[in-house]
Specification:
binds adenosine monophosphate; alpha/beta; 13 helices; Rossmann fold; three-stranded antiparallel beta sheet; single chain; six-stranded parallel beta sheet; Pantoate--beta-alanine Ligase, Chain: A,domain 2
């Protein structure tokens, strides 16, 4: 495995390679990231994993500074999982001067759900991902469904900018109790960790209700909105601060118009804070 922190070296290394897959990460590598590397490896001979904590996409300075950085451990895990190249740029390498140009993400994606709570997050993520695409020119890039809104945005971005890169999505990898693996889980205290799967349990509960009711007369927008409200109340009563629970059509990224005909396309997304830690998760109905 080559560890590269220089653009010229990266380019000359990539010139020797045939088909390349990109797996972008912010490090603190866990099984979720590694599953994306393994998925990528099935399709190409060279997997490039980037480890870059992109300051520009953080809303709060403290969140950026406290983001877990575990590079020695990360490199060991990536090597064991047959990553070919790790690109480890510094902030100065990615942003040699003040970044003035950003990709504009349509508002129906950028202003809802995560976009309501994270400022220009999607525009900043789109911009850094495009930078990686220009530098690495991957044939394939793999993103996790764990960050569904981000994955949806990137899929569209790639098509609309004619990147010629195929986007693959990886399933969410979970801990033994259902909690989605996330670098931010390391911020949880042991008592918070013990109850952190409550968000996933709430999503499972909503999914079960959708599967049970989708053929019945009352399966309409009002019914879905009641499920969302009950889920939010449940989390809040369990000591969380729920930011949203929302059922949408995952193919169109909008509220379903006719839940009865769209139920197979539904996804339930949630974000909530447990103590100082903000967690997100989602579950597909089918
Ligand atoms: P991050 O380092 O958190 O920015 O994540 C890098 C990539 O890993 C993104 O495409 C995430 O969606 C994906 N990812 C994060 N957590 C998981 C997980 N538990 N399962 C699968 N993919 C994940």
């Amino acid at each position: 495995m080559k560890v590269i922190d220089n653009i010229d070296v990266l380019k000359s290394e990539l010139e020797k390679r045939r088909r390349v897959a990109l797996v972008p990460t912010m490090g603190n590598i866990h099984e979720g990231h590694l599953s994306l590397v393994r998925q990528a490896k099935k399709y190409v001979d060279t997997v490039v994993c980037t480890v870059f904590v992109n300051k520009l996409q953080f809303n709060e300075r403290a969140d950026f500074l406290n983001y877990p950085r575990t590079i020695d451990d990360d490199l060991k895990k990536l090597e064991m999982n047959k990553t070919d190249i790790v690109f480890l740029p510094t902030g100065e390498l990615m942003y040699p001067c003040e970044q003035e140009y950003f990709i504009e993400v349509p508002e129906y994606i950028s202003k809802c759900l995560e976009g309501q709570f994270r400022g220009p997050f999607f525009s900043r993520v789109a911009t850094v991902v495009m930078k990686f695409f220009f530098l690495i020119k991957p044939d394939i890039a793999v993103f996790g469904k764990k960050d569904f809104q981000q994955a949806f945005m990137i899929k569209k971005l790639c098509i609309q900018f004619s990147t010629q890169c195929t986007i693959l999505l990886g399933e969410t990898i979970r801990d033994f109790d259902g909690l989605a693996l996330s670098s931010r889980n390391s911020h949880l205290s042991s008592s918070e960790r013990a109850k952190a799967n409550q968000m996933y349990r709430t999503l499972v509960n909503i999914k079960e209700k959708i599967l049970k009711n989708n053929e019945l007369e009352h399966f309409n927008l009002k019914f879905l909105s009641q499920l969302e409200d009950t889920g939010k109340d449940k989390l809040n009563n369990e000591g969380w601060e729920c930011e949203y629970i929302k059922v949408i059509n995952k193919d169109l990224f909008r509220e379903p118009i006719c839940p009865k005909t769209e139920w197979r396309q539904l996804i339930v997304l949630a974000a909530a804070r447990l103590g100082g830690t903000r967690l997100i998760d989602n579950i597909e109905i089918v």
